[in-house]
Write a structure and sequence with these properties.
A hairpin with an 8-residue loop joins strand 4 and strand 5. A 5-stranded mixed β-sheet has the order 1-2-3-5-4, covered by helices on one side. Helix 1 crosses helix 3. The radius of gyration is 17 Å and the shape is elongated. It is of the alpha+beta class. The chain is built from 3 helices and 5 strands; from the N terminus they run αβββααββ.
Length: 151
């Protein structure tokens, strides 16, 4: 494949699968959290990948430098309670998604695919976007990377 995005997606999936084996589903983000009224068509925990934007600048001739945004959505189906009076072990179980999130960050921040065809990934933000109507905890992890492309 000649596409940066196709190759990067495949390498990113491989990295996540290897470094964070607790992840049960990795796929492109097609809005799977809204496919079904009751549950998305994924196994949990899931990571959905997208490249929401890329900015390009000229490097001379036909060469371009691309700065790429990488979006990972971590979908977790909560299975425990985290209210203040809950037993500590119950709360720890409820907060496991933070541990999975941290594993993703540690696996990807500073990572570059074999072959070094892009700059190391850098975490830029983390936000929440919960689907309480169907009982999902969703954490949005944003990273950036960059690459040079010659034509």
């Amino acid at each position: 494949m000649n596409s940066f995005f196709a190759n990067f997606y495949l390498d990113l999936c491989k990295r996540i699968r290897t470094a964070v084996p607790v992840i049960q589903w990795i796929e492109q983000d097609f809005g799977q959290d809204v496919f079904d009224k009751w549950r998305p068509n994924v196994a949990f925990p899931a990571v959905l990948i997208d490249f929401p934007s890329a900015q390009y600048s000229g490097e001379g001739g036909l060469s371009q430098f691309g700065e790429v945004s990488v979006s990972l959505r971590l979908l977790v189906s909560p299975f425990s309670q985290s209210y203040d009076d809950a037993p500590l072990e119950v709360k720890k179980e409820a907060l496991q998604y933070f541990e999975i999130e941290q594993q993703l960050v540690e696996a990807l921040h500073g990572w570059t695919p074999d072959g070094g065809y892009c700059q190391p990934m850098v975490r830029s933000s983390i936000t929440s976007n919960n689907r309480n109507d169907i009982g999902l905890r969703i954490r949005n992890l944003s990273f950036t990377t960059a690459y040079e492309e010659d034509f």
